[in-house]
Amino acid sequence: MAIPLLRTPIHQSNPLRRRCLLPNPNACTATGYSTPKKKNKQLLVPVAASSSDLNSLRTDAGRRTCDVGNNTSISSLEPILAIGDPPTFVSAPGRRIVAVGDLHGDLDQTRCALQIAGVLSSDCSRDSWIGGETVLVQLGDVLDRGQDEIAILSLLRSLDVQARAQGGAVFQINGNHETMNVEGDFRYVDSGAYDECLDFLAYLDDGFKDDWDEGFIGWVGASEKRRQEQKASAGSHWGQWNLLKRQKGVVARSILLRPGGPLACELAKHGVLLKINDWVFCHGGLLPHHVAYGVERMNREVSQWMRGVSYDEDDPSIPSMPFVATRGYDSVVWNRLYSRDPSAVDGYQMSQVQMILEDTLRSLGAKGIVVGHTPQPAGANCEYNGSVWRVDVGMSKGVFNSSPEVLEIRESETRVLRCRKDSVGEVEVASYL
Q1: Residue ranges of the Calcineurin-like phosphoesterase domain (predicted)?
Q2: Is 290 a catalytic residue?
Q3: pLDDT (0 to 100) of residue 401
């Protein structure tokens, strides 16, 4: 399924500038999408949130024009075209691409990473997309090890709505911790995350029973009060004898994340891998047999399983967890082949991995792959002649609590961005290729 994303640019801004983006009353401000379907295509048209009506949205010689009243915004870039459900192949001509690694429930570090990426401003007590036509890719593992998982997912969805109104987009990839939680494996759940699940369900019951999208997008703002209350209370985490409350949290998490649950269905909108232009993005790693199996097929099977519509042949009552994508040490979400420490691998093994990598990339017509999953103590880095970038820096407090870093891709240029150690709010280039 081809999904052209027509842009309605609101503001052209320096992507590395820190400021609050105030809404322009004459611009198209999107809070959602109407989805007119035509055969096998979907045209995602931003729904104007301003008082002005969206009078026309037209295509003229490859240029996208949005007319709102007397205001006209024009971009010379071609539209973003996403193929697959969930998206698997994305054409984003001329776009700046930014990749962010594992977030593991740490909202503060997430915001810091997105500010380094130049796509987020939180200066006016609201989260605003300032990335223009940038494409942001989050490489999975939002869940586990931290207490603000749903708030992060809410933030990413909110930014996606805003980004698409400006000609950009936010894509997410599911990692092994997303698939583990949908399977019911809660071994790595932070105690505060159970609290968030309980609070989120209560929040939905209070006013969003019939409007999941509005409630979900608004949660990141609503959860701020909850976070402040937790900081002020010494008893915000589970006490070792508070078994009743813990059990309620487990039940709430199960309701949200079991196959077919509302949060599992939200995760089902994303695949386990994504190819944007000539770069592949996945959580663990992609191998030749994954490509032979079918990358769209893997994404579709994982999505169906999360939505609870794919069942085990032996027992139709049990959702079937896709094996190739999510199970086993060499599955897409678990594989660490490209993330090994070079000092621990001999020359022969390196050459074998290089051959596997080249075969994989050649079969997809790609020049490189970006992965998360394996924390890099020295920061984001590349191997195999720049064909593999490892961007999980362990930024969450539940992992290394390291300084956030992000990968920026501009046409043929690839570099790592991070905050300067001796200054506040300034970004420096950590490495360049």
Answers
A1: 96-235
A2: no
A3: 98
Spatial separation of the C-alpha atoms in residues 339 and 158, rounded to whole Å: 31
Those residues whose C-beta lies under 8 Å from the C-beta of residue 344, and which sit 6 or more positions away, are none
* Cα–Cα distance, 68 to 73 (Å, whole number): 9
pLDDT tens digits for range 293-313:
999 999 999 999 999 997 666
pLDDT digits (tens, 9 = 90+) for 214-232: 999 999 999 988 777 767 7
- Which run of H or of E encompasses 351? helix 347-364
DSSP 76-90: -SPPEEEETTTT-EE
Gap between the Cα atoms of 255 and 171, Å rounded: 25
* Tens-place pLDDT, residues 114-133: 999 999 998 867 999 999 99
- For residue range 182-199, list pLDDT tens digits in order: 999 999 999 999 999 999
Can you tell me the distance from the alpha carbon of 75 to that of 179, in angstroms, rounded to the nearest whole number? 38
First-to-last alpha carbon distance for the chain, in angstroms, is 34
Question: What are the structure tokens assigned to 370, written together?
Answer: 């970006």
Check pLDDT > 50 for residue 59.
no
Query: Which residue among 104, 177, 270, 290 is the active-site one?
Result: 177
Give the residue from 422, 411, 404 showing the smallest Cα distance to 114.
404
Per-residue confidence (pLDDT) for residue 229, from 0 to 100: 75
CA atoms lying within 13 Å on the CB side of residue 257: 27
Residue 154 phi, psi (nearest 5): -65, -45
For 388, residues 6+ apart whose C-beta sits below 8 A from its C-beta are 338, 357, 368, 369, 370, 371, 382
For position 71, which CATH number holds?
Answer: 3.60.21.10
pTM value > 0.90:
no
Q: The tokens of 259 are what?
A: 């196959």
State residue 334's pLDDT score: 98
Q: Please name the residue ranges forming H helices in 11-135.
A: 107-116
Number of domains in the chain: 1
Calculate mean pLDDT across residues 401-410.
Answer: 98
Exposure pattern of 200-222 as b/e (b: 16+ CB <10 Å)? Answer: bbebbeeebeeeeeebbbbbbeb
At residue 368, φ and ψ (nearest 5 deg) are -165, 165
User: What is the span of the domain harbouring residue 339?
Assistant: 2-432
